[in-house]
Amino acid sequence: MPAPRVYRTEALVLRGMDLGEADRLLTLFTPRLGKLRALARGVRRPKSKLGGHLDVLCHSDLMLARGRNLDTITGAQARHGFPALRGDLLALGQALYVLELVDLFTAEGMENYSLFQLTLTTLERLPDAGGGETPLRYFELRLLEATGYRPQLYNCHVCRRPLEPQDNYFSPSGGVICPSCQAQEPFSHPLSLGVLKVLRHYLRAGYEEARGVRLTPSQARELKLVLGECLRYHGERDSRAGAFLERVKGLPSQG
Amino acid sequence: MKDGFIPLAAPVARLIEELSKLPGIGPKTAARLTYYLLRRPAPEATALAEAVLALKEKTILCSACQNIAEADPCPICASPERDRATLCVVEEPLDILALERTRKYRGLYHVLHGAISPLEGVGPEQLRIRELLSRLQGGQVKEVILATNPNLEGEATAMYLQRLLVPLGLRVTRLARGLPVGGDLEYADEVTLTRALEGRQEF
Ligand SMILES: [Zn+2]
Ligand SMILES: [Zn+2]
């Protein structure tokens, strides 16, 4: 039986690129079809009925028609446009960072339902965090887990011996390494016992429990550094939205 | 050449290839345009070729507003009729054309040449923001109207600029949301744009 010509899916719009006179090429993330690219015709015209439902960061129900090279969007109805994120530069920068990581860590056509759910719930958490980065750290670690890069947190990544309750090291390629193996991993960072416990807790606990953990400023910096290194190693480049987010944080404060 | 495959004459193939690089033009349309030109009288093809050459050779960016112009300053920046206390910030030169069609705006412009879109590799440093800030140093401008597109990239750009401009003690306004979300300003009709200009609000 040939695949039906028209199909429906919900999708989160990760990226949009202007194409031709008024079209956009969209990168969509869907719960069951993974990431896919699709053409949205005429959506840049103000009179377009679809445009408002296909902006980046829209979570929408879509109807698509299969094409020879590219599927075309024939219908769209927004479920949630995340207005609280669009109206706040810091929250928007955080949301773009989440979208970029999803794009970077997924391949087209690979279903990843848990990552889809994680992404939506993370976007819902951002406005309540008031610019705090706990939702981002929790997302980063859970993203690594959902894409097969969960760092080793209980045994040394090199010698496989159980880790002692002490300060260890962290290798972006695979996880924690014990002090005796550290010399073999030149790109490792020191990892305090406190932050190791936070990483373990984030992977064990739900978000509500995880965000109850209070971090000292130096622990927050360390957590951000080790997760950032891990993401850069597996994502194979720096996050552009991450750089933008840092820029936004450096802007003169509002009012 | 005996196997039935007849290659295109090289000049034909070359123009088809160049035309199909243009946005919205596929190889089929490019071939149609090429054969159309081939049938037209020579002066028409020459006029087109000259126009394409002049586009790059005879245009510059206005050093004040960054719009594409023949002279620096451009006619709008040079005009004594324009209100120098108001500056309208747009993403692209075509947006100026759209706003000028309303005949409701008498101030000056500033073209950013894009909008913030980190995922596509466009950060604030890729836009003409530094030029905007140095223009505002003179103190002549009292109000900046942010007329970026009503989509996520345009909103991000407007919010970013607002954070930079408010500390300078300027009035910062944003086009009203009469414009549908997700669209491009250059496609807005005059009525919509006029309303959007009249209904601009404190940002
Ligand atoms: Zn070891
Ligand atoms: Zn000018």
Features:
heterodimer, A: 255 residues, alpha+beta, OB fold (Dihydrolipoamide Acetyltransferase, E2P), de novo design (two linked rop proteins), 2 domains, five-stranded mixed barrel, three-stranded antiparallel sheet, 8 helices, 8 strands, B: 203 residues, alpha/beta, Helicase, Ruva Protein, domain 3, Dna Topoisomerase Vi A Subunit, Chain: A, domain 2, five-stranded mixed sheet, two-stranded antiparallel ribbon, elongated, binds zinc ion
What report would you give on this structure?
The complex is a heterodimer of chains A (255) and B (203). With 255 residues, chain A is of the alpha+beta class. Chain A has 2 domains: 6-81, OB fold (Dihydrolipoamide Acetyltransferase, E2P); 84-249, de novo design (two linked rop proteins). Helices cover 37% and strands 22% of the residues of chain A. Chain A has 8 helices and 8 strands. In chain A, the strands form 2 sheets. Chain A has a 5-stranded mixed barrel with strand order 1-2-3-5-4. In chain A, strands 7-6-8 form a 3-stranded antiparallel β-sheet. In chain A, a hairpin with a 3-residue loop joins strand 1 and strand 2 (23-30). In chain A, helix 2 (89-104) packs antiparallel against helix 8 (240-249) and helix 5 (193-204) crosses helix 7 (217-235). The longest helix of chain A is centred in the C-terminal third of the chain and has 19 residues, at 217-235. Chain A starts with 5 loop residues before the first strand and ends in a 6-residue tail after the last helix. The model of chain A has no long low-confidence stretch (mean pLDDT 93). With 203 residues, chain B is of the alpha/beta class. Chain B folds into 2 domains: 10-57, Orthogonal Bundle (Helicase, Ruva Protein, domain 3), CATH 1.10.8; 61-174, Dna Topoisomerase Vi A Subunit, Chain: A, domain 2 (3-Layer(aba) Sandwich), CATH 3.40.1360.10. Chain B is built from 8 helices and 7 strands. Chain B has a 5-stranded mixed β-sheet. A two-stranded antiparallel sheet of chain B has the order 1-2. The longest helix of chain B has 16 residues, at 42-57. The termini of chain B are far apart. Classes of the chains: A alpha+beta (255), B alpha/beta (203). The structure holds zinc ion (2 copies). Residues 156, 158-159, 161, 177-178, 180-181 of chain A line the site of one zinc ion (ZN).
